[in-house]
Every structure is written in C-alpha cells, then in structure tokens.
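In the previous chapter we treated chains in isolation. Here, by contrast, the input contains two separate entities that must be folded as one system, with a combined length of 739 residues.
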Amino acid sequence: MAEYKEILLTSDEIKTDDYLVNMGPQHPSTHGVLRLLVQLEGEKVLNVQPHIGYIHSGIEKMTESLSYIQIPHLTDRMDYLAAHMNNEAVSLCVEKGLQVEVPERAKYIRTIFDELQRIASHQLWWCAFGMDMGALTTFFYGLRDREDILDIFEETCGARLTLNYSVPGGVMFDIHPNFQRDVKAFIKKFRKKLPEYERLLTGNVIFQERTKGVGILTKEEAIAYGVTGPSARASGFSCDIRKKQPYSAYPYIKFNEIMGTDGDTFTRYHLRILEMFESMNIIEQLIDNIPEGDYAVKMKGVTKLPEGEYYQRVETGRGEFGVYIISDGKKNPYRMKFRSPGFSNLFAINNIAKGWKIADLVAIMGTFDLVIPDIDR
Amino acid sequence: MAFNIYDFTPLTKSIHDALAASLNPTATLAIEWLIVGVAYLLFVALFGLFLVYAERKVCAAFQQRLGPMRVGPWGLLQTIADFIKLLMKELITPKRADVFLYNLAPFIVIIASFMAISVVPFAPGLAAFDFDIGVFFVTAVSSISVIGVLLAGWSSNNKYSLIGAMRSGAQIVSYELSVGLALITMIIFAGTMQISGIIEGQRDLWFIFRGHVPAVIAFIVFIIAGTAETNRGPFDLAEAESELTAGFHTEYSGIKFAFFFLAEYINMFIVAAMATVVFLGGWMPLHFGQFEAFNGVMDFIPGLVWFFLKVFAVIFLMMWFKWTFPRLRVDHILNLEWKYLLPINLMNIILMTLVVLFGLHF
C-alpha cells in the first residue's frame, strides 16, 4: 500500500476524515482506461493522482522493428480521434528526413482530412462532455452528425476511424469522385446544426453554473505543464501550431486562432465549439481549389533515413502531437518518440482540480478531452 | 352492479352492500381491505411497467431514435422482460454490510410510495381514503422514503453509496419544504385539505387558472421541487451514473433494485398526481363557469380519462426536463432550494393570502 501513503497530504498525523476513492480504470467518465486516485474530504477534492498504463501497447518499441513506410499504419491507434493527424505527423517527419517534396494535391487533401477529423473529434468530445454533465441527449445528437463525416472517410479511405491514409510521400489513394460534393453537402448541413447544439448547452443556466469559473488554468501553469491545444489557448497561451509552424496546406489559407482569456471550464468548452466553426471555414477555402496532379511521390519500400534527429509537430484536437525520430542510418529508426498532448494535459489536472468537488472534477476532465491510448501509447 | 364510468360510487357501494349483507362487519372490512390492497398492488405494478416503457420511448424520441422495438409489438413487452430478468438475478449482499438494514431499506422506500398512492383520487368515488388532511398526509408519508435512501447508502458498506445517499438525503429533506409550502399555498386558496373538497372547488375552473399569478408561481415551484424530491431529471446527483456508478443503490441487485427503480417511477406518479389534484383539477373536466354547452362536451369524457391525461402531461414534462438539462451540482441544488425557492414560496404564500382575503381571484 505504499502508493496510498505517498499521496496523503503533508501533515504528520494521519488525517482521519479524508478518504481515497478510485475512479476507474472502468468508469463511465474517464473516457478510457484511466485510473484516478482521488483524495476526498466529503465532496471536496484534495488531491488527484492519475495512474496510466492500462492500455500501453508498446507502439514506440514496435516502431523500432518496422520500416519507415510501415510505421504510419501503426499510429492510427494512438490518438484514434486524430488518426489522420498521427499518420500525417509521422509522414511529414520522414519526408523531412528524406527531403522529399510532397505534391500540392496531397498537401491539400491532407489538410482537408485534418480539418474534417478535427470536427469529428470535437463532435465526439462535445457529445461525451454533455453526457458527463448529465445532458444525456447530446450524446446522440453529436454522434449523428459525426456519422456523415465517417461516411466520407469510408468512401475514400475504406475505414471510418483508423484512416490509415497519409504515408511518406503523399496519400495512399486518390480521393473518391464524390468527395468534394459530399464534403460541401456536409458543411452546409453542419453549419445549420452546430448553432442548435450550441444553444442546447452554452446558454443553459445550469451548465453555466457548473462550468463558469471552475477549474481555472492560468497561462503560467499552462506553459509550465506543457499543456497545448484548446485547453491552453483558453488560458491565453497562443500555441496553435497551424499558425506558428504551418505544415501541409496551412500556409495557403487564412484563419483565426481562437483564443480565450479566462482559462475556466466554460472557456475551454466554448473555444472548441468556435474551433469547429473555424475548421469549416478552412475546409471551405480548400475544397474547391484542390490542384490536379499526383497524389503521392513514388517512394521505395525500404527507405533509410540519413543519420540524425528529426522532429515534426502537428496540431491535433487535443494539442501538439510531436514525432521525434533518432535515426542511425539503418532502415528502422533507432528510437521513435511520440510527444502526446494528452500526457501533458492530464498531469495538469491535479493542480487545477484541488478544492473543487467531484462533479467539477468530471467537468474539468471532460474539457481536457483526453484520449487514453494517446497517453499510454 | 351499476357500472357507471363517470362515477364509481355506485359500484363501490354495491360491492360493500353485497359483502355486508352476508358477512359480519369485521370480515367485510378485512375483505374490502384485501380487495383494495390487491387492486393497488396490481395498479402500481402495471403502471410502473408502463411508465418505464413510456420513459424509454419518450427518451428515444428526444434522442431521435426509436427505443425498444423488438420485444413484443413496438417493444411493449420490453419492461416485462426486464423485470423477469431482475427477478431472476442473484441477490448479492456485500461483505460486512449491515444485513438487516440492507434488506430493510428497499421495503421502506416502496412502503412510503404505496402509502402516498392510497389517497390519490383516480375518478369520482375511486379513492381508497379520503381524509380531511388528505394533502398533508401525502407530504408526511412521502418523507418516510428518505430513511430508506439513507439506510441503503449506509448499510451497503461502500463509499460511493454513502456519498450518494448523503447527497440524496440532503436534497430530499430540503425540497420537501418547497413541496409542502407550494401545497399550502393552494390549500389557502382552496380552503380545505381534503382532496375531494379541493377537487370540488375546481368545478368551475381549475385552480391554476382561478388563482392566476400565485397559483402559476406555486405550480412552477411545485414541479421543480417535485422533480428534485424524486431524484429525477436535473437533480439526479444521487444516481449520477457518470460520476459515482449508481449512487445509493449501487450494491443492490435483483428484486431489491427493482423496488428502488419502481419506487422512483411511482414517486414521479405521486408528484404528478398531486400536481394534477391541486392545480389542474384532479378528475374534474375543464369547465368554464357559465358556458353550459362547452361544459357538457367536456363532461362527456369520463373523469378517469381526464385524470390520466393530466397526469401523463405532467409526467411528460418531467421526462422532458430529464433528457434536456445537464445535472446540477449538489451545492447548486441546495442553493436553489434555500436561497431561491424558499423565499419565493414564502412571498407567494403572502401574495395568495392577500388574493384570497380581498377576493382577487376568478
């Protein structure tokens, strides 16, 4: 029982009115296999200690025995809500190492898929968040529209969630002939639906009472913990990689980086809704202008990256997803490390949940939008 | 037997006469109690089944899907299948649980619900008891269920259950005040606590229309407080599945869980029935004072049907709340009661008293 002793707070005598509650690994709110050891005093949270590793699959180790062309197919499963962005990150890193220039068509396609996946990821986050708050209907509304996006993915890539689409050199197949038509139809429909969904929760007094001012993450804390993505932008930390270090087709388009100032749960929630609107704007700018040409550069099956270290970051729905490759000139990487946004975001929760109640802990965890396989890899 | 759908008094009278003619008074009373008891048991069981099915269908409609469709035509036999499953489950008692209290808790909860149902007037002449403190009796008796909830949480030997039970206990005890005060407002208006008297007073127009402003405020407060009383809707902290598994009834399985489950739906029925009796006229059809033709048409529909229609309307409203709003946190719940509903209630009582004193009602 050493671990329990470790997290009891600093006073010398044993406090008898605190108790430890285990949330997870199987729990409806932790969105995956995450175990939270919560030290409670009545309803108040004193300390939250996350225990991860329940879904560790050894992906980083596996990459050491695969060739660079095989690795992107494995990365779908890490952050499954940003599967394409994972693929893209690895592909971009390898292309950086090999100094390969991807055709314009592939860049546009990759970015459109990125943004579609961002919308799908934020929709899933929204429906699960509503469900955690108790508004059980949001779950069904969110999933319903996500189905349209998943159908678009299925037409082109063959899979709904683990897209397996970007490879070093470009994308695996050309887009389906119906792709542009379907995406335009979806955006038209979704533009009308999203304000309705927003009205369901954003203006609701009960929801605002539960989220405004709750779990404030200051900008200094966000930078110190390495929190990135919408969770950090809500605190005023400007960290959108699509703006700071644009990749793929992002240099060609104009969009806003959505920022907030309060850093509370409500801001984090509202920011993601606004990001969905922004994503739709981005897609609209790109969808009609996909250049003709090849969709990929021909790559050899077995490629050797020159010796050295390469890092590439992309902006997923959770934050900065980074791929770090150390290569020693052979056909497998010497070491591949994934910088997962969930990992940094998760460990910031202890600090901001202290003093709030259990219900607030659920709300705070919801707004960080954690995907556990991303944390555990 | 004179079976008149509009008034059940001749029917009950003829049964009583038939029994009294052949048996001594004690035996007559005993057999009548038996008949009423069985009738109520059947009603509670069937209505509970129906309410669970209705909830699933209504919930599905809000979520743009169909709900149970496979078990029986349109899924009508779904709840029966669920209850058979619950009956067949193993009754697991947690280790080191307080066995006597653990077994007693569901019974207390269901007994409280049964007692409260006994005064509900389904139709003219179809109420088991007609006390002269009818409305007060319902409030008093439904308070007993708090004991059951607290016992369930305590005796389960489970931290989650304990947290859930304490939250629930605090909530129910607080909102009973609002429920009671909202009812008192209408008792002031009606002038009597006897349920049949209250219904008679609504012969010309339902109280919610007669008592305009204070009655509407009391209705809104009653619906909010009643939903909180039954641990439903936005006030379902006690069984917040996404936070503490199932709250105070986590450790119950099988028939004991079925009791808690049933008691929740019957409580919802009781709240709806009280709202109907005190605000919407009970079994009294909608009459508009002097319009004889309109009243005649309204009278054509039997009181029994009116009662159930009104109860379903209120129950639908309560279900609507549950599937739309997010959940309130426990301190918000208590805040709402003590800082908002209670002062509103007290001021409403004063307002109603003035309205009655100066005759400022229809």
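The radius of gyration of chain A is 21 Å. The mean pLDDT of chain A is 85. Compare these points with the single-chain example from earlier in the chapter.
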